[in-house]
Structure formats: C-alpha cells, structure tokens
Design brief:
Blueprint: E1 21-30, E2 38-47, E3 52-53, E4 57-64, E5 69-76, E6 84-90, E7 95-101, E8 109-116, E9 123-134, E10 140-150
Parallel strand pairs: 4-10
Antiparallel strand pairs: 1-2, 3-5, 5-8, 6-9, 7-8, 9-10
Length: 154
C-alpha cells in the first residue's frame, strides 16, 4: 500500500532462460484512484541469446531405409558471452549427434552434426537434440529433429 502523494517500488522478475530478441512484459497495478483504477506498467528489453543457431530445427525429410543422412547446423556463442558447450545427445536412437569446433573461431563457433543412421526403422521419426551448456543462464538448448524413413523402391 502506498499513501496518496507518496511513491513506492514494484519489483518485477522475468525468467529469460527461454527468451531471446525483443521481449515486452506487463504488470497491472490496482489503485484506489477513480481516474486510474488499473495502471499498466510495461518493460521492454532486447535479450541476446547465449547461443545463436543457424537453424531452429533439423529436418531429414523423406528418404529410403538403408540411406544414412547427415545434417549440420552452426552454433555461435557471441563474443561477450562465456558459455561453453558441454555435451550433446539425441532422444531419437536412430540419430547420432556430435559437436566439432570450427577452426579459427576461438571456440565461439561449433558445428553440430546430426546423422540419421542407415538402419533407422521405417516410419516417421521425431526427436530432440539436447545441447548441455556451462557458464550461462541457459543450461540446455533443445533442437527438434524430424524425418520419415520409407521402405524405398521395390
């Protein structure tokens, strides 16, 4: 409660772990002022991602069983960030993943390589590639992967 003619302080916390880009959040304050019964307070910020991905997802598309497919995406850590990539794994047993450094990038650029195995079962595949990080506010980055393995030509 704030007395008439006095000032107060409102603290607003926003979990930015899964946010990036321009973010706008609002809080509504109820007052006893008949002219302003509800006041909307808005904050706006630009949140820089800790890791920039060249693509948001990996799509293997349709392909016949017996054919191995490889997809890559580039992961870039902005110069001002001290985050490190710790590990990577796939929730889809038909997809293997690994991280390779990019020469000359001082560890700021990494290549994520996803391979759908030739022996992947026939049918649609959906999974997550989970990148674990150290030293930042984001501990995990989730990249969705999908595709469809067909029986191939008969």
């Amino acid at each position: 409660k704030v007395a008439a003619g006095k000032s107060g302080r409102i603290e607003m916390k926003v979990d930015t772990a899964s946010l990036s880009g321009i973010v706008e959040k609002s809080v509504f304050v109820t007052t006893n002022d008949p002219q302003n019964e509800i006041v909307k307070l808005t904050i706006k910020a630009e949140i820089e991602p800790e890791v920039i991905l060249s693509d948001a997802a990996i799509f293997f598309g349709d392909s016949p069983r017996g054919k191995e497919l490889r997809r890559e995406l580039l992961m870039t850590v902005p110069r001002a960030k001290s985050i490190k990539i710790h590990s990577v794994r796939s929730t889809d047993p038909a997809v293997s993943v690994r991280i390779e450094g990019v020469d000359g990038s001082d560890g700021k650029n990494m290549r994520l390589i996803a391979v759908r195995k030739a022996n992947a079962p026939i049918g649609p595949h959906f999974g997550k590639i989970i990148v674990r990080t150290l030293g930042g506010r984001v501990r995990e980055i989730v990249i969705y992967e999908s595709g469809n393995v067909t029986a191939g030509e008969k």
